[in-house]
Amino acid sequence: MAQNSFIFGSVRILVEMFKIALSSLRANKLRTILTLLGIIVGVSAVIAVVTIINGLDQTVASTFSAQGSTVFTVSKRPMVITSREDLIKFNKRKDVTKQDLEAIQRLCTLCWRIGYSVTGRTTLKGGDNVSENVPGQGVTLSMFDINAYTLEAGRLWTTEEGNAGQNVVVIGADILKNVLNDIPAERAIGKTIRVNGIEFRVIGTITPMGSVLGASRDNFVMFPVPVGERMFGSHESLVINIQVQNSSFFDDAKEQVTSIMRNRRGKVTIINAQGETEEDQGFSVESQDVFIGLYKSATDNIYLVTIGVAAISLVVGGIVVMNIMLVSVTERTKEVGLRKAVGATQRDILLQFLIEALTVTAIGGTIGVFTGFALAFLISLAIGFPMQTSINAAILGVGVSSIVGIISGLYPAWRASKLVPIEALRKE
């Protein structure tokens, strides 16, 4: 019973202290607003960037993981090259050829689907509409399954049509809009468009996939590989796409393909940019994880910069809180002396001023959370990215701002608690 009374009494005292803190903040509105600004800016920056990057993470992960962990490529050069020296080195490798493709098809027992594409830029014309610099892809039929494309209307070409190199084309949603007057996908089937001046018959349309990082994924035309080789030439090194049936086969399939390529290439020696001789595998085997890793390294840097900016804002906000609290202690010296004269302990005074500092920073943190979410919403609306809110980010924002308040309020609160009642009462 006594314990319950003690707890109830402590809670009642804390509530009273919070009421006094709020009353003090209301009495000095301009000072309170200035105190809040540093906290709000810091917390808003963190919340906005974390929310936007979480949305980007979701978009990028869903885009590059559409194939799951079942697809990898074999190519002459890595998908990501970070220096001129590396570019020179990789360009000295032998091309990946159709003979390599056939060897993998023949010897890789864990490879489920294997395909490749021949790519280039095209100019499309439909009636009076012209669309330039459109990605054109001569692809094997297996590439539709490997890339997880789905048909919105029509069909794919048959093996016979593909082998014969017929002028048939499957188009993305942007081509419907830009070249075929935005007609429904079903009505596009059978229409004729010109690709680099050559007449093609539309036999299928791909379901819209949207955009990533501002780049449309629906602006393309696809036709059989022999057509692509006629249009763009077949001298380029192949990028072979390989899919396994289950992600559990992924690593073993990569090992199989690597062994097949090594056996075909033998020991590869190249001269690097410095003119030195070094051993080289002679080819690259990679999955889409390389893009996700590159993206994450970029966003990690953004996180660090944002945390730095937010930390500076919070430090400035903390200094402002400390200064305001010191001014408040000076202005309320008589009040402190009176409270101590009627029985308030050093602990009570310390707690009172700490609660005031905590209250103002917690309010700033809460406002900063809502401001950050609102800012993230506006940015995501403007650039078309999904907004991924996080309760953890909100808790972190309020929590960090509250910690800043406690740290900033410690010295002013300690100073107030050390005031001698008689001297404080004499203060005018």
Word description of this protein:
There is one protein chain. This protein has 428 residues and is an alpha+beta fold. It has two domains: 16-63 and 292-426, no CATH class; 69-287, no CATH class. The chain is 58% helix and 18% strand. It has helices at residues 2-27, 29-64, 84-91, 98-107, 142-146, 159-164, 173-178, 185-188, 225-232, 250-265, 289-331, 333-341, 346-383, 391-417, 421-426, and strands spanning 71-75, 113-126, 129-139, 151-154, 168-171, 192-195, 198-206, 211-212, 215-216, 221-224, 240-243, 268-271, 277-280, 284-287. Helix 1 (2-27) crosses helix 13. The longest helix has 43 residues, at 289-331. The model has no long low-confidence stretch (mean pLDDT 80).
User: How much helical structure, as a percent, in the residues?
Assistant: 55-70%
| Mean pLDDT metric | 80
Main sheet characteristics: 6 strands, mixed, barrel
Summed up, the helix count is: 15
- Determine Rg (CA atoms, Å): 33 Å
For the record, give the distance between the C-alpha atoms at the N and C termini, rounded to a whole number. Answer: 45 Å
Q: How many domains make up the 3D coordinates? A: 2
| Element pattern in H and E | HHEHHEEHEHEHHEEEEEHEHEEEHHHHH
Global structural class: alpha+beta
Low-confidence stretches: none
Total strands: 14
Quaternary state, please? single chain
So what's the overall shape?
elongated
Residues in β-strands, percent: 15-25%
* Adjacency order of strands in the biggest sheet: 2-3-10-5-7-6
